[in-house]
Amino acid sequence: xxxxxxxxxxxxxxxxxxxxxxxxxxxxxxxxxxxxxxxxxxxxxxxxxxxxxxxxxxxxxxxxxxxxxxxxxxxxxxxxxxxxxxxxxxxxxxxxxxxxxxxxxxxxxxxxxxxxxxxxxxxxxxxxxxxxxxxxxxxxxxxxxxxxxxxxxxxxxxxxxxxxxxxxxxxxxxxxxxxxxxxxxxxxxxxxxxxxxxxxxxxxxxxxxxxxxxxxxxxxxxxxxxxxxxxxxxxxxxxxxxxxxxxxxxxxxxxxxxxxxxxxxxxxxxxxxxxxxxxxxxxxxxxxxxxxxxxxxxxxxxxxxxxxxxxxxxxxxxxxxxxxxxxxxxxxxxxxxxxxxxxxxxxxxxxxxxxxxxxxxxxxxxxxxxxxxxxxxxxxxxxxxxxxxxxxxxxxxxxxxxxxxxxxxxxxxxxxxxxxxxxxxxxxxxxxxxxxxxxxxxxxxxxxxxxxxxxxxxxxxxxxxxxxxxxxxxxxxxxxxxxxxxxxxxxxxxxxxxxxx
Length: 501
What we know:
By secondary structure, the chain is an all-alpha fold. The chain is built from 19 helices and no strands. The chain is elongated.
């Protein structure tokens, strides 16, 4: 029925062409196309149930044909000699056995070959159908433009245009290209269905780099940022501040007496400490320059400066040593459970006895003090640079800057510079500069590392640096390269085979 309608439409078009002339060709073509499209839609709706019935019938028919072919082939093989059957098995790479087993193996192998052939033909048919449907879905104007680009001219119906485009597509190896695209889409779906762990294992197995350096660096930086690595270091709190106990109304006098007793003890302790410090300083001053130099060298300090400088350096070092010894004794006096709680609260990794935990805490606190000193030094460096920038400005400019920040303008240039510097420390401007510097420096440091080290850092920090889409894309590229290399290696063998013939 469809063919008859198309023939009628074509005949009508020819009649109109003869009567109207070449000037009306475009209009005729549009009318023909408009007549055909509704007719084709109706036919598609009517043919859908019929197609489903045909598919069921085809499957049954195919099953019967396969059974008949297998039975005929089995009868043929039974009539063959054992030597001929063995030769068939050898040519197909199958194992030998008794005649009955060999026949079954051959039948199963040949059935598998036929099934693969049918599967390949079905894929080819699907590729052609997809291409046909793609062209059918295009508007008539787009289809005409595509035909013109391909050198197909003339007043043609949509069906004819599609037929000619399909012929050109087939000549351009469109079927094989379509099959390759179909295989690629299938493999891409298989890989995308895997989780990251499975994809990583596959990448490692075939030697594909699963990680992207820039991604690892950025995710490590984000992890360190969230962990507070780039934040201003906080001073270690060694002891919790004592919370004053609010006395009951009847115990007010007793509380005041106790507070006074504590105050006197603190004053006495302070006086004793000052006396000890004065005696220590006096003792150091009584030493000769050479003795002071030796004492500093023994403690791995550079003996530089005047005598008073060396005395002060040794005095401060002595205070630090006393504080460290006092802190060590304080930690050792704690119970083991209390010390464990302290270690956990500071997130210190320490496994072992009391002495191990004490040393771990001391090392942690020393590191915190060093970080504070280093940060303070960086703050001073930023302020020094800021001071140079401010001193290069005029007094009027500095006044405007002070006013804009809500500061008192003052009367002198130096006074304004100091106020602006102090404000820079308070409002976080200095901290922001230091953050940017340390963040940028860390990024450069990470980018200078190789993939192996970055991968270890990510694993240690628990950072997921994998990107699933990247792994899938790289695996597909690797497999495509392998197939291309295999095809190239087979080409010389094929040429040799042709030469021998």
